[in-house]
Each structure stands twice: as structure tokens, then as C-alpha cells.
Design a protein that fits this description.
Distance between the termini: 105 Å
Strand order of the largest sheet: 20-21-22-23-24-25-26-32-31-33-29
Number of strands: 34
Largest sheet: 11 strands, mixed
Shape: elongated
Strand content: 15-25%
Number of domains: 6
Helix content: 25-40%
Structural class: alpha/beta
Radius of gyration: 45 Å
Length: 1005
């Protein structure tokens, strides 16, 4: 693997080539004076190093080629070790002195290893430049001095020789012959290089992909000290990946160290932590400095490893101070240093501010099966006769490499009988070796974190995080912190919809920890969840105060029956989970410490008074509500998911208004064959609906107003053949669902707040609706001139289909604009605003009832009839007095204005319209339109009914849903065919009384 580096120009002087971290191409560079008698030693050393597979560079001096020295300088900077052979005539060579200067610069800059050899010369002579060594140095320096240098070469080279001679090396006079010296040097070089791959797994399934991803990240950070974290649960393969990365790249570093099992050593006696520091230093420096304390070790590390380009792997770290005392401050290391940390606790990595965290995910199904097969069969795939059994075991392992390896090896050469028996035992008693390793993570938790872990693995996997947090906080645990710690250590993970999930092996390990606490006496355990044990405790009535949580979820559909008295001794019971369990006796036997009750198929029609729930935080009674027709969960601020509707087969009305946290509607809603109404108004977090909703056969009213994240496709909503009313105001719907308005059943459609539709389209839709015989393009063109991406021609198919629509609601920009639009529409529709010459004898009236109006309508009809009969002109006096049970508003012409009364529970309304007509034409034979204009809300609500005298309940609810207390409202009534409206009166029925009819009669008569 190569690391990026940038080159730099250099002269024959000591210019630096270290603008970036060194890219090592050689192991050893040998610096010597070839005309010296030491040439024979160097030749022998060079030969033995090559035989030992040490990449060594040695070159003849050739000053006639101008670039030769520069090439030597580059070679020195690209070598890990520099061997300097000092001799009596060494200082005569200017070239060698320049090379020596470069070597010392690399030694001081990035920690290049320097090994001096003193060949027939005293080290002190080199150190102090005495005798012939000093004289030769002076001559070489004077020859090299050009006069324009900042420092005389003699001064520089003298300092360089002193530094080099002070480094520990070898004196030839201490050896019997050159061969012995060469053997010692080569041995030392091999130790310093340490070229030995770490042993990794025998079957590296999927290993390369992990290695490529991490090494790619290291390359991206190669211009600085790079810290990489590898995070994952125990047994996920972190150490194996780290070793493979180490083997791939360690030759690129001046020094390297792989420290394993840091957590295990750290947790032992404090004094044994010093060896961790000693091992790190020895791996890099190849000697163990005597250190008496941890603080001393940290100081030695900071000084001894400074400026070196190193590869350090710290395996299984679980505390931040381990990192502080082993790798200290990253600024102290040389450029290009890589530090890799494996851990089960991501918090450690975040605190260190590593450059990149690589999360170890579990293996996929194919890789899991392959790894298991290699260990079990020594083949990449399972043998045919073991295929299904192998797959069932692999599924249980959940992609955890450790479990796949251990279980695969345990089945190697096993008989078929053992294969058939073993899988059934795994979920009850996990295999010992796997559990022993997994338990390491659990043992590293404090008492509170262990309690939270055990509660979650027994009761709350798959439950929403906030829901679980509230319950466990109520149990006296700091679940906000504890759950976060479990997530950081890989023991918990948060999946979609913020639900807590856990690897099945960890879950089973936690349950086994509780089982092992009292293997023969389950009644004394803190948690009861193994079904046979729970049933035995309840039948034998041997529960104890130790039990804090109990879960009984039998797999059979038959209801298990127990005595409530069996819970009497479980006085500390906090968590209770039952599934279709029948209890007889008094519920007062349940613990007063209960915090959570989850009871699917609760057997009673009501909750008895002696069921102690004073401290309960969450109750989830999954009732089988066979006859339930109306379910209203509106304003449930923390409701995130609807209940399962499978226990509510008769449900007709589902109202979930203003549930801002609702994210999911259960797919079982598609099984509700009797569902008539769905109201999801202002469910602002709801972004999608299950496809089953659109397959409902009975749904008549669908309200989605304020669900601004929902995007309904036209082809989806068109599947609801029974739909009559669609209210989808302020949603993410992009266009009018034309397939809906073309439906023969659709009666009411609200078009307000459509995101990408111009408001100017709506008047043209209304005109097309009111005058279906006219050309729609004549209405559309004037209003669509400024529309971006003009799409007015799409209204042509709408024009013919709107004849089926009974109601439509649109939004205006302002009261002024709305008023003008209404007048224009009425004029185009043919409303006559002028005085008519029709005879007074053709003065008639029409009553239109909405909502609850029956008692009122007949009485009002009689009263108006008598008034018209006694009138001698075209004027008529309509009843206008207000009474406790009705409010009257009378207007001139075809409209009536009023303000919606405050604090009035309106039950219905009656419109009375007095008009002039020909003898042949009456209003009941005309197309009737009612326009409700709310000037306060700037809305126009139109209702068109054929030859009818009343609206139905759905129309009443639609009208009322758009009227608020105090709103300024005007109602227009049109009949078409040139009928002239003289007066319009509105009677609001706003109370209930058995004497309403009597009150009305006395008022009108």
C-alpha cells in the first residue's frame, strides 16, 4: 500500500525533502567511504542483508553526475534505517559528509534509526574530531565553502559528527572478525524492522472489504496524524480486522506496535498496567526502559516516540485514560502516524475526537453461512443433508462472527443426531463459549446499567426509546443516561421509528444471566420470562418478593387460566406483561409497585377498583374489542404508532386528530371492512400510509388536512371506490386528484392549500362546476396567464366530471378578492340582481334544512305559508325573532349575513328563500346551489344539490368544520333558470329541548 507524498526540490546542500511524511522505499541505506579499507566489511554486510530479504541501498560515489547526490538524499529520506560506517578517512569525502548531514536531519525529524559502525577508529575521535579525522574534516570544509553560506560547513559537519558518534553502535575492535559483527548487525536490523505478520483467522470470509474501507480512509488522512476507531459489539471481529489492516500497511512505518487485550490487563492489579507501556516502547524502540510508575511511563512515551512515523494499534480499549497513558497527545507523533483503536464503547472514540469511526456491522446471510460452513464442513457451503439445519443455526447467530466460528467448530464432524438436537437448545441455553465472551461487555457495566440492560432484553426489545425511558425512570433508574451508555457500547441499537433493538445473542445472554441466578428455583429470580418457568411459578404459587418483572406470552391461542392470588407474594413486581391470560380472583393481589402493565387480550370489561395502579406510568391493555365501532385517540401528543386493529373488526370511525408524534399507521387497518371514517387531521409527523388503506371497500370520509408530509398518489386514492368526502388541505399533494372528482360517488372535496396549484385555478373550477354546459377554456384562460408551466388544458377532463361533485371548498387570498370572485361567479351563473316584473301571485318560498331541523321545519313552513297568503304585495315579513333554541338572521335578496354565535352548540340550520317565479317554474325543480362564504377564514364553500330540500349529516359536518366562533359569514342561495330571490333568512338551531316544537309554535303563532 502506498501513501501519498509530495516531492520537494533540493540542492546539493542539506535541503529538506520532508515536506510530507516519508514514503519508505528502502529498509536500509549504508553510508561509507568506499575507498577505505572498510569496503570489504560493507560488501559482506550488504550481501547478508539482501539474503535476509532486507531491502538495502548502497551506491558508489560519482560526483561527475550532478544529480547523483540529490538521488542519494532522496534515498536516505526514503529509508527506515541508516547504517554509517566511520573510518579514518571518512571525513575526507564531502559527499559522505553531506549524506551524514541528511541522515541526522531525518533522524531528528521523523525518527529514522541510525546505526553507527566504527571501523578501526575510536568513537571519541569521531565525536571530538581529533587527529586525522579532524584534519581531514577541516580540509573538506574549506573546499566546500563558497563564501555565501549562512554557516560554515566545518561548524555544521562538526556538530553532525558529534551527534552521530553519540548514538549507540558497534566498534569493530570488539569483535573477533568481521563475520561476527555482520551477524550482530543483521540480527539487530531484523529486530528493528520486525517484519512478521500477525496471525489472523483461518477463514477470512468478507475480511478484505472491511480492510479496503479502513485503509482507504487512512490514505485520505495520510497528511497528518490519523486516528481511526473500529467500533462494534463483542465478537463482531474488530480485532481480526485490526490485525488484517496491520499486516497490510505496517511496512510503511518506522516503528509499529499492536497491543492486545488492553481492557483485560487494565482491569487487573493497578501495578500491572506499566507493562502495557513497556510493551509499546519495546515494540517501537526495541528496548524496555525501566519505569517505576505510570506517570514516568507516559513521559518516556511522549519523549521516546515524538516525531516518529508510527503505526500503533490499541486493541479492546474501554476507558479514556488508557488512551491518554498509551498514545498521549497526537501532536507528539510524526507526520503520517496512524493510531487504530478497537473498542466496544463509541464514547471513548468521540471523546478522543478520532478522525473516523468504522462501525462493525454483523455479517449478511450469505457471508454468515459461508463462515459457518468453513468451520463446520471445511467447505464454503453446507452439505445438502445438513443445509436446513445449518441455516437455522446461522439465523440464530445473527451474523455475529464469534458465534458462527464457535458453533461451526462445535459441529465439525458431528453426527446427524447431534445436529438435530442442538438447535432446539440454543435459545434456552446459549453455547457456553459464546456466552462467556459476550458476558464481558455486561460485566463492564455498573449496577444501574446492568439493570437497564436486563430489563430491556427481557421486556422492551422492539419498544420505542422514549417510552422505555419513561418507564425505567419511574423504576428509579437513570434510563436517559443508561440507555445512551448501552448504545455507545454496542449492547443496544436504535432502529427505525426510534425503537430499541438488541442482537439476539446478547438478549439470550442477558436472560441466561437471570436464569443462572436461581436455576432450580425460578420464583426467586428477579425476572420471569421463560414460559414454562412462569407457568410453574403461577400454578405452584411460589412467587417471591425478588421478582420485579414477569412476562407470560404463550404461543397457543388457548387462554391460560391462573389464580390472581399467585401474585400475592410478588410485592416488588414492577413490570407485568401478559398475553391472553385469564385470571380469576381479586386483582388487588397485584403489587402496588407496578410501573408498567401490558396486557394483550385483557379479559374484563372494566378495570376493577382494587387493581393498584397508583404508581403506574404506562398501561397498554390490548383489548379484543369485538363490538367497538368508534375509536377516538385525538390530541395524544406522544402517540407514535396506532394500535393493532386486528382486535377491532367492527370499527367504523377512526379519529386521530392532532397527534403530532404519530409516525405509523398499523397495516391491519386494511382488514377493517366496516370502516367509514378516517380522520388524521394535523398528524404533522405522518409521512406515509400503509398501502392497505387504499384498498378499503367501505371508507366514505377521508380527512388528511394538516398532514403536510403526506404525498398521496392519484392512483392510490382512486382505489377507494366508496369515497364520498376527501379533505386534504395543506398536505404535500402536488395536484388535484382528478380521478377523485370524476368519481360518481364523490360528494365533498376540499382543495385548500395545495402546494403547487395557483389559487386562480379554483374560480375556473367552480365556474366549470356551476355551468357544466359551457366551455371550460373560456373560464380558465383569463385566470392562468401568469401561471408557470401553464397546465390549464388539464381542466378539460375535469369540466365534464365535476357534475358528480356535491361540495367543494376553496381558499381565497383576501376578503376583498373573495367578495369580487363571488359576485363575478354569480353574475356569470345568471343570478338576477334587478327588480322583476313577475306578478305578486307568483311569490313562493323554499326551505332547505341542514343537520337537525325536523321539528323546526314543519312549523316554519306553516308560518311562512300563512305570511305569504296574507301579503298584499311582493314583500313578505319572515319570522325574525330570536329565541333560546333558535337564532334568526334575515337578508334582502339572495344572501344573508351573520356572525357565528359564541358558545353556541349548533345542531342544525334552516334556510328560507322567498323568490318570484313563473307559474310553470318552482325552485324545487331547479338546480340548487348554496355558497357559504367565510370572510374571516377567506374560504368559499359551495354545495350543489339537485331537486332536494335538505342536506345530509355529512354536509352539515362539512359546513361546521369550516366555521369558527365569531366568524363573519355570508350565505348565497341560487336556483338558476332566472328565478329572482326576494329574501333569504337563516335560522340557526342551537339547543335541545323536548318542548322545542311548543316553543316554535308559540313564537310563530
Amino acid at each position: 500500500m502506498e501513501f501519498a507524498s509530495s516531492s520537494s526540490s533540493s540542492s546539493s546542500s542539506s535541503s529538506s525533502f520532508l515536506n510530507s511524511e516519508p514514503q519508505f522505499r528502502y529498509d536500509v541505506f549504508i553510508n561509507f567511504w568506499e575507498e577505505d579499507i572498510g569496503r570489504k566489511l560493507v560488501s559482506h554486510l550488504h550481501s547478508v542483508l539482501l539474503q535476509a530479504q532486507v531491502k538495502t541501498l548502497i551506491k558508489e560515489e560519482n560526483l561527475q553526475e550532478g544529480m547523483e547526490l540529490e538521488e542519494h538524499m532522496r534515498a536516505i529520506a526514503a529509508s527506515k534505517i541508516a547504517i554509517i560506517v566511520f573510518s579514518k578517512s571518512y571525513t575526507e569525502s564531502t559527499c559522505r559528509l553531506l549524506q551524514l548531514e541528511k541522515i541526522i536531519e531525518c533522524h531528528e525529524t521523523f525518527g529514522q534509526i541510525v546505526l553507527p559502525i566504527f571501523y578501526e577508529i575510536d568513537p571519541l575521535d569521531v565525536h571530538d574530531q581529533k587527529d586525522d579525522c579532524g584534519k581531514a574534516l577541516e580540509e573538506a570544509a574549506h573546499k566546500s565553502y563558497s563564501g555565501d553560506q549562512l554557516e560554515h560547513p566545518l561548524s555544521r559537519w562538526s556538530r553532525t559528527l558529534t551527534t552521530a558518534a553519540g548514538i549507540s553502535g558497534w566498534d569493530v575492535r570488539d569483535f573477533r572478525h568481521d563475520a561476527e559483527l555482520v551477524e550482530r548487525i543483521v540480527s539487530r536490523v531484523q529486530i528493528l524492522l520486525g517484519y512478521a505478520d500477525l496471525s489472523i483467522t483461518r477463514f477470512p470470509v468478507g475480511l478484505n472489504s472491511h480492510v479496503e474501507k479502513v485503509t482507504g480512509c487512512i490514505e485520505n488522512h495520510s497528511s497528518k496524524v490519523c486516528m481511526i476507531g473500529i467500533w462494534g459489539m463483542v465478537g463482531s471481529g474488530k480485532t481480526t480486522i485490526a490485525k488484517a489492516i496491520y499486516n497490510r500497511i505496517y511496512r510503511q512505518f518506522i516503528g509499529k506496535s499492536f497491543i492486545e487485550n488492553i481492557r483485560q490487563v487494565w482491569d487487573q492489579v493497578f501495578g500491572r498496567r506499566v507493562p502495557l507501556q513497556e510493551n509499546l516502547l519495546y515494540d517501537i524502540l526495541k528496548f524496555k526502559p525501566g519505569m517505576k510508575s505510570f506517570g514516568m511511563g507516559r513521559t518516556v512515551i511522549e519523549n521516546g516516540l515524538s516525531r516518529k512515523k508510527l503505526l500503533i494499534v490499541l486493541d479492546d480499549v474501554n476507558q479514556f485514560d488508557q488512551l491518554e497513558n498509551l498514545c498521549g497527545n497526537r501532536e507528539g507523533f510524526g507526520q503520517g502516524t496512524v493510531i487504530i483503536i478497537t473498542t466496544r464503547d463509541v464514547h471513548v472514540l468521540n471523546r478522543l475526537k478520532v478522525d473516523y469511526v468504522y462501525k462493525m456491522d454483523v455479517m449478511n446471510e450469505n457471508e454468515s453461512l459461508e463462515l459457518f460452513s468453513w468451520h463446520a464442513f471445511r467447505e464454503a457451503k453446507p452439505r445438502k443433508d445438513f443445509n436446513e439445519l445449518a441455516r437455522s443455526i446461522v439465523a440464530y447467530c445473527g451474523g455475529l462472527p464469534l458465534a458462527l466460528k464457535v458453533l461451526g467448530s462445535s459441529f465439525f464432524e458431528a453426527r446427524m443426531e447431534e445436529w438435530e438436537i442442538e438447535p432446539s437448545k440454543l435459545k434456552i441455553i446459549p453455547i457456553d463459549n459464546v456466552q462467556e465472551v459476550l458476558k464481558i461487555s455486561f460485566d463492564g457495566l455498573n449496577d444501574m446499567e446492568q439493570d437497564i440492560f436486563l430489563y430491556v432484553c427481557c421486556f422492551f426489545t422492539g419498544k420505542e426509546r422514549g417510552y422505555v425511558t419513561e418507564i425505567l425512570n419511574g423504576c428509579g433508574l437513570h434510563a436517559d443516561i443508561g440507555i445512551r451508555v448501552l448504545i455507545e457500547r454496542g449492547l443496544l441499537k436504535v432502529e427505525r421509528n426510534n425503537k430499541l433493538e438488541m442482537h439476539p445473542l446478547l438478549r439470550d445472554m442477558g436472560r441466561e444471566i437471570i436464569r443462572q441466578s436461581w436455576p432450580k428455583k425460578p420464583g426467586k429470580r428477579s425476572g420471569l420470562f421463560f414460559q414454562d418457568d412462569v407457568k410453574d411459578v403461577l400454578r405452584e404459587n411460589n412467587g417471591t418478593e425478588a421478582t420485579q418483572g414477569l412476562s407470560l406470552q404463550p404461543h397457543s391461542t388457548r387462554r391460560d387460566r391462573f389464580q390472581a392470588h399467585a401474585f400475592k407474594e410478588m410485592k416488588r413486581l414492577r413490570l407485568l406483561q401478559l398475553d391472553h391470560v385469564q385470571l380469576t380472583g381479586k386483582y388487588g393481589y397485584f403489587s402496588k409497585q407496578l410501573r408498567w402493565i401490558y396486557w394483550r387480550g385483557f379479559p374484563s370489561k372494566y378495570i376493577s377498583n382494587n387493581f393498584h395502579m397508583e404508581k403506574v406510568i404506562a398501561i397498554d391493555l390490548k383489548l379484543v374489542l369485538k363490538w367497538l365501532k368508534f375509536l377516538n385517540l385525538s390530541h395524544s401528543k406522544f402517540l407514535r404508532e396506532t394500535p393493532d386493529f386486528s382486535g377491532m373488526p367492527s370499527l367504523e370511525n377512526l379519529i386521530l386528530k392532532d397527534c403530532p408524534s404519530l409516525c405509523k399507521v398499523h397495516q391491519s387497518i386494511g382488514d377493517l371492512r366496516n370502516l367509514l371514517l378516517i380522520n388524521l387531521k394535523d398528524c404533522t409527523s405522518l409521512s406515509n400510509l400503509p398501502r392497505e388503506v387504499y384498498k378499503l371497500k367501505s371508507l366514505r370520509t377521508f380527512i388528511l388536512s394538516g398532514c403536510f408530509k403526506i404525498k398521496i398518489l392519484e392512483e392510490d386514492i382512486a382505489q377507494i371506490k366508496s369515497l364520498i368526502t376527501l379533505i386534504a388541505e395543506n398536505t404535500a399533494v402536488k395536484q388535484v386528484p382528478f380521478s377523485i372528482v370524476s368519481s360518481k360517488r364523490i360528494g365533498y372535496l376540499s382543495l385548500r392549500g395545495f402546494e403547487r396549484l395557483s389559487d386562480s385555478i379554483f374560480p375556473s373550477i367552480i365556474r366549470s362546476w356551476m355551468s357544466p354546459t359551457l366551455n371550460p377554456q373560456s373560464f380558465v384562460s383569463p385566470f392562468c396567464m401568469d401561471m408557470e408551466n401553464n397546465n390549464w388544458h388539464d381542466l378539460a377532463p375535469l369540466h365534464s366530471s365535476l357534475a358528480n361533485l356535491r361540495s367543494i371548498l376553496v381558499q381565497g387570498d383576501s376578503e376583498f378578492q373573495l367578495s369580487n370572485e363571488v359576485k363575478t361567479i354569480l353574475v356569470e351563473y345568471g343570478v338576477n340582481f334587478t327588480e322583476s316584473r313577475i306578478s305578486k301571485h307568483h311569490l313562493r318560498f323554499s326551505l332547505i334544512g341542514v343537520g337537525s331541523y325536523n321539528e323546526f321545519l314543519n312549523t316554519l313552513s306553516n308560518s311562512v305559508s300563512e305570511g305569504l297568503a296574507s301579503s298584499e304585495s311582493c314583500d313578505v315579513s319572515l319570522p325574525g325573532d330570536n329565541h333560546p333554541y333558535w337564532l334568526a338572521n334575515v337578508g334582502e335578496g339572495h344572501s344573508v349575513c351573520f356572525n357565528v354565535p359564541q358558545d353556541c352548540d349548533m345542531k342544525g340550520m334552516v334556510l328560507c328563500v322567498v323568490y318570484l317565479s313563473t307559474p310553470e317554474m318552482v325552485a324545487t325543480e331547479c338546480l340548487t346551489s348554496v355558497l357559504v362564504v367565510n370572510y374571516t377564514k377567506c374560504t368559499l364553500h359551495m354545495h350543489r344539490h339537485g331537486r332536494v330540500i335538505s342536506f345530509n349529516d355529512e354536509d352539515w359536518h362539512a359546513i361546521m368544520s369550516n366555521l369558527g366562533s365569531g366568524d363573519k359569514v355570508e350565505i348565497f342561495v341560487t336556483f338558476g333558470h332566472g328565478l329572482v330571490v326576494k329574501n333569504t333568512a337563516l335560522y340557526l338551531i342551537c339547543g335541545e329541548s323536548n318542548d322545542l316544537e311548543k316553543e316554535l309554535l308559540s313564537s310563530f303563532l
